[in-house]
Amino acid sequence: MPIKVLLVDDEPLVRAGLRAVLEAQPDIEVVGEAADGAAVVPLVRSLRPDVVAMDVRMPLLDGIEATRAVLRSVDAPPKIVVVTTFENDEYVYDALRAGADGFLLKRARPAEIVHAIRLVAEGETLLFPAAVRALAAEYGSAPARAALERAALTDREADVLRLMARGMSNAEIAAELIVGAETVKSHVSAVLAKLGARDRTQAVIAAYESGFVSPG
Amino acid sequence: MPIKVLLVDDEPLVRAGLRAVLEAQPDIEVVGEAADGAAVVPLVRSLRPDVVAMDVRMPLLDGIEATRAVLRSVDAPPKIVVVTTFENDEYVYDALRAGADGFLLKRARPAEIVHAIRLVAEGETLLFPAAVRALAAEYGSAPARAALERAALTDREADVLRLMARGMSNAEIAAELIVGAETVKSHVSAVLAKLGARDRTQAVIAAYESGFVSPG
DNA sequence: GATCTTCTCCCCCGCGCGGGGGAACCGGCT
DNA sequence: AGCCGGTTCCCCCGCGCGGGGGAGAAGATC
Q1: Distance in angstroms (rounded) separating the CA atoms of residues B45 and B61
Q2: What's the rounded Cα separation, in Å, for the pair A114 and A112?
Q3: How far away is chain A from the Cα of B201, in angstroms, using its nearest Cα?
Q4: Is any atom of strand D within 7 angstroms of residue B171's beta carbon?
Q5: Closest Cα to residue A192, out of A177, A175, A182, A205?
Q6: Which end of chain A, C or N, has fewer beta carbons within 10 A?
């Protein structure tokens, strides 16, 4: 009997890609899709998947909350694999703490994705792929890193800085985080103040220099 | 005279979407469509498009080979923009090496797609659009550096980008280089155009991701 | 000579950014 | 109950930024 998988991602293209990759395997069957976390629990109840491939960042209910909701409210819950774009995404670890069984990168090769699904279906836990260790190893210089740690950014400020470091405007960050533009401005101002940066460009430079974000 | 665009994608839905987006612009005209790479060269010869929006993955002849074929066999070849679904598409960089002038993601917003077409039509190389990070992540900094070299910054523009990456304002850069503020603005604008960056922050990000500057 | 690129500087203009305030809500802590 | 930090949103305001033009001088190239 095949491994039944439920896909949860707000981007149709990502779902289509995962479906194509997984359904090419004879032992894997995609039994359903959801575009946001709020739809996950009912779908898990009705479809009884073995594995849920869950995006972290989604509108309405993110992957972390959705993971908690599934584990809390479903008997014999499925294995949950967190799907993420960036390996240094802090949310990934939150999701793992919330009870997820592993994670995989969207840029992973199809064979790796298939492998990950099979592993967690068998009860294994995928915690720290080589990519994450390698990234942690080449983390930034100690002084700069310490400086940024001293800055003591809040969770939300860290989110904003991460998106700033991806070149997003305030409006784009607001759309990404599903908050108002004024809210983003508040967070940006707080980040600039804490980092001692004059503008967003200096803040992004500090993020790179400290290893808060890393090239590649 | 409008920018003449040829669409090449095996998915009719994608072609329809691109056509709808591009033809909403008064200065852009979609002159033709092709469903696979094999049909591209004859169509380029007969239609003489300014820009070819080329999917990477296609039946018969993929976007990489089709790009090579066009550049090899057509005089005064059109600009070629690689269209891809996933930012980590391993073939994207191969296409850039084959001579493509830029790339864009299918999930990009209409305004970004239009912007990309206009930029490459003007002879710029489009590097930034969100995919640079993923490319650099998977293949290391060498490809991104090569891509930045393709941008062909002049000596002065490289000077300005280096100082931008140190967090300097236009006025500070002007003082550092002992030139007028207006001169710096000109160089900055040139850098942004060549990198396909929207603002100085994105330019600095591209500088880090490409290894043009390094943390530490 | 003519042409091209590069570097230099200038104009106007719109807008996003960042500073400076304030305020409401909520959860945690005392 | 009271306090406080975090998140959310609002106001006004000045200014640097970036786009779109143009233009002159120097050097390379043909």
Answers
A1: 17
A2: 5
A3: 5
A4: yes
A5: A205
A6: N
For the CA of B5 and the C1' of C18, the distance in angstroms is 40
Q: What number does CATH give the domain A140-209?
A: 1.10.10.10
Torsion, CA A14, CA A18, CA A20, CA A22, rounded to 10: 180
Contact between B67 and B100 (Cβ < 8 Å): yes
The nucleotides of chain C lying under 7 Å from a protein CB are 5-11, 16-23
pLDDT in tens, chain B (216 residues): 788 899 988 766 567 667 877 877 778 888 988 888 888 889 899 999 988 998 877 766 778 888 888 888 888 888 888 887 654 445 555 666 677 777 776 656 566 677 778 777 776 665 544 334 334 343 333 444 444 554 567 788 888 888 888 888 898 888 888 888 899 999 998 888 777 788 899 889 888 877 777 765
CA-CA distance, A105 to A115, in Å (whole number)? 12
Distances (CA, A) of B85 to A11, A84, A85, A129, A168: 11, 16, 14, 25, 20
What length does chain A have?
A: 216
If 0-12 CB within 10 Å is exposed, 13-18 middle and 19+ buried, where does residue A46 land?
exposed
Write out the two tokens for B208: 């880090």
Please answer yes or no on whether B211 and A215 come within 8 Å at the CB atom. yes
Residue nearest to nucleotide C20 (CA to C1'): A189
B50-76 per-residue burial string, b: 16 or more CB within 10 A, e: under 16: bbbbbbbbbeebbbbbbbbbbeeeeee
* Domain ranges, ordered by start, for chain B: 3-123, 140-209
d(CA A193, CA A171): 20
Q: Is B26 exposed, middle or buried (0-12, 13-18, 19+ CB in 10 A)?
A: exposed
Task: Confirm or reject CATH 3.40.50.2300 for domain A3-123, answering yes or no.
Answer: yes
- Total number of residues shown for chain B: 216
